[in-house]
Amino acid sequence: MLSHCFDVFWEALSLQVFLVFFATFLLIADYMKRRHPKDFPPGPVPLPFLGNLLHLDIRKPQLSVQKLAEKYGNVFSFQLGNIPIVVVNGPQLVKEALIHQGENFLDRPKLPILYDRFQTFGLIFSNGVSWKQQRRFALSTLRNFGLGKKSLEERIQEESRFLTDAIEEKKGKPFDPHFLINNAVSNVICSITFGNRFDYRDSQFQELLHLIDEAGKMQESIACQLYNICPAVMKHVPGPHKTGFKNWEYLKSFVSKIIEKHQEDRNPHEARDFIDAYLNEIAKEDASSSFHKENLLQSTLDLFFAGTETTSTTLRWALLYMAMYPEIQGRVQAEIDSVIGQSRQPGIADRDSMPYTNAVIHEIQRISNILPLTLPRVTTIDTRLAGFHVPKGTILVPNLTSVLFDKDEWETPNKFNPGHFLKNDQFKKKEAFIPFSAGKRGCLGEQLARMELFLFFTALIQKFTFQAPKDVKLSLDFKISHTMSPKPYHIRAFSR
Ligand code: HEM
Ligand SMILES: *[C@@H]1O[C@H](CO)[C@@H](O)[C@H](O)[C@H]1NC(C)=O
112, 131, 418, 461: which could form a disulfide with 231 (CB 3.0–4.6 Å)? Predict the structure, then answer.
């Protein structure tokens, strides 16, 4: 009996000893792995397993590294679990990384939260030859549809009419413009990629837009950060990341069905849209090409997603700013009245004769700063930045806020001021205006987005005056979703 107890005691003890040894070993192994190379950008000391997770503000992980910038300077590092991340601040260094050393910082990282949704297909998260081929094809196809039967300009003008008609129906009563604008902007991309638009009352499409919006909630959650650190565990834990994944699958199956339909009824001699053009590319059967079903699906999804959220968020900020700055809205209307009048729709050729409106749109993009940390990059080779050593495979986060709000570049960085883009009443370009990021991997849709912003915005301000609902004080508070977007609001649109 006694000897039995003794045995159990020894067994337990040795198990304990073993566990302690094992844990110590893991910690040391983990520490060795995370030890930074010489000259690595400075940063806080990471904890085993968690890295600097505890340095992040649980509610606003994207913004919370802020304090680190104050402490460590323009280039600093922190760790998400085992993943070292380098943050770059300031116009000069951000441009050094994105433009002058563009080739060295060209790739996207394979963070689990991204990888498990996008793999390495498509446009946004692909790398290497596949990325190059997909990007070139998407750019030239977007351009071709601008030359085709119905130009991009006409598609956007047509959609602006639907949008202003729908807002007219509100008859000056307060309404939430979120999903109307979302639908309108999305229709431009749908018309290019799928060949058709969706009616604002189409309940299936509205549901899809709501699901995408809901998926944005995962972005602000700590669950996402944890997912990057231990995906194997988090896959089984409920939370906003699970909803995000589920909604993403729904969107995928929606687009898959549209692709199947195209395969059935397409005419190889006459491409109607992006999907038709892509199917022609697949039919060429070039073994070395990256044109296959998975890339078709993901590139289409990427255009749809990237092309909807960003532009529509910017337009929602635009209406808020107009309602909050009535004198500025009035000056835009005066310019519209003198250059365009009320009898015709705005066209893209009007932009050059409308410096004030153009400046207002730029200032809205600057101050709304919808992608403050843009999208992450990863180094393709060992390189140096600001004298620091940045090894191949290091994640780089360019801080666009530090450029769009730089004290030396902007007279009143924190104040809405279209004067930032004007000189002697003429439009003035600014080097530090980089809401689309910059360089070879900068936003693929920049041209399209700028066209959409000008045509939609001008059409809306031509037809309406936007105002806060009676006794309501509008707020510029933001929430973090796919982008930094305004908190839901109601607004009134009075016909002019
Ligand atoms: C106001 C509107 C928009 C803003 C502020 C914006 C901003 C951005 C930013 C900051 C990036 C990251 C670029 C980088 O890593 O350097 C990006 C990438 C991208 N954007 Fe946009 N974007 C907008 C509209 C659009 C539109 C309309 C499209 C659709 C055609 C689009 C398609 C893309 C794609 C496909 C990428 C990934 C490019 C790549 O990885 O090669 N964007 N965008
Ligand atoms: C980005 O830049 C802004 C403005 O300079 C700064 O307040 C913020 O802390 C920076 N964020 C990071 C992550 O470095």
Answer: 112
Is 124 a pocket residue for ligand 1 (Cβ < 6 Å)?
A: yes
Distance CA 460, CA 438 (A): 29
As a whole number of angstroms, the distance between CA 406 and CA 411 comes to: 9
The whole-angstrom separation of Cα 301 and Cα 290 is 16
Residue whose token pair is 């092309």: 307
Q: What is the pLDDT of residues 9-40, one digit of tens each?
A: 555 556 666 666 666 666 665 555 556 778 89
Mean pLDDT, the chain, whole residue set: 87
Q: Which H/E stretch holds residue 458?
A: helix 446-463
Indicate yes or no: pTM above 0.85: yes
Q: What is the pLDDT of residues 430-439, one digit of tens each?
A: 999 999 999 9
Homologous superfamily of domain range 36-495: Cytochrome P450 (1.10.630.10)
Q: Of the residues 52, 400, 401, which should be mutated to test ligand 2's pocket, given the most ligand atoms within 8 Å of the CB?
A: 401
End-to-end CA, the chain: 96
CA distances from 15 to 2, 20, 21, 25 (A): 20, 9, 10, 15
Cα(140) to ligand 1 centroid in Å equals 16
Collapse the DSSP code of 172 into the 3-class scheme (helix H, G, I; strand E, B; otherwise coil) and give the result: coil
Structure tokens at 8: 């159990």
Give residue limits of the domains in the chain: 1-35, 36-495
H-helix or E-strand containing 12?
A: helix 2-34
Mutation test residue for ligand 2: of 75, 80, 89, the one with most atoms within 8 Å of CB: 89
State the alpha helices, DSSP H only, in 289-406.
293-324, 326-339, 355-368, 401-404
Tell me what percent of the residues of the chain surpass a pLDDT of 70.
Answer: 83
Minimum-distance ligand 1 atom for the alpha carbon of 142: 30
The rounded distance, in Å, linking the Cα atoms of 65 and 85 is: 11
**Ordered DSSP codes for 202-236:** -HHHHHHHHHHHHHGGGGG-HHHHHHHH-HHHHTT
Q: How far is CA 379 from CA 108, 353, 401, in A?
A: 9, 42, 21
pLDDT at residue 58, as a whole number: 44
Per-residue confidence (pLDDT) for residue 42, from 0 to 100: 87
pLDDT of residue 59: 47
